[in-house]
Design a protein that fits this description.
The chain has helices at about 30-40, 45-55, 70-80, 80-90, 95-125, and strands spanning about 5, 10. With about 130 residues, the protein is mainly alpha-helical. The protein folds into two domains: about 5-55, no CATH class; about 70-125, no CATH class. Strands 1-2 form a two-stranded antiparallel ribbon.
């Protein structure tokens, strides 16, 4: 029969009188406290507790941050300049390669838009529009 902790609801392991999740017991008598102390000093309990903590909190997982600095971020910055500048500021320490690419794209986009506006302005002035 499976037993569950009345404090946190996690399943109690067979042979243990203490919850491996929260460390509490549902019994308060001296005999139970002696069993708890014996369980805690048991090497199997310590190994189980360590394994459970690592598996519950995903300490063994490596977080992969994509900082490739791909050409796609340049194109994004080129067409969405303001958002590109904001991303460059936000990513400056976390993703420096992506930050540089999106910033470069945003700068080129701003320069090209100024050149386009200047050329359009001079074109329309030349023909008298």
């Amino acid at each position: 029969m499976k037993r569950y902790c009345k404090y946190c609801g996690s399943e109690l392991e067979e042979g243990f009188d203490v919850c491996c999740n929260c460390g509490k017991t549902d019994k308060g008598d001296k005999e139970t406290k002696a069993k708890i102390n014996a369980n805690i000093s048991n090497p199997d309990y310590k190994k189980y507790k360590e394994d459970k903590e690592y598996s519950d909190h995903n300490y063994n997982k490596k977080v992969v941050v994509d900082d490739s600095g791909s050409f796609g971020w340049f194109i994004f910055g080129l067409f969405f300049g303001l958002i590109g500048f904001i991303l460059a500021i936000v990513w400056s320490k976390e993703k420096p390669k992506n930050s540089k690419m999106v910033l470069f794209g945003a700068l080129i986009g701003v320069i090209l838009s100024w050149l386009f506006k200047a050329s359009a302005f001079s074109f329309f002035n030349w023909f008298g529009f």
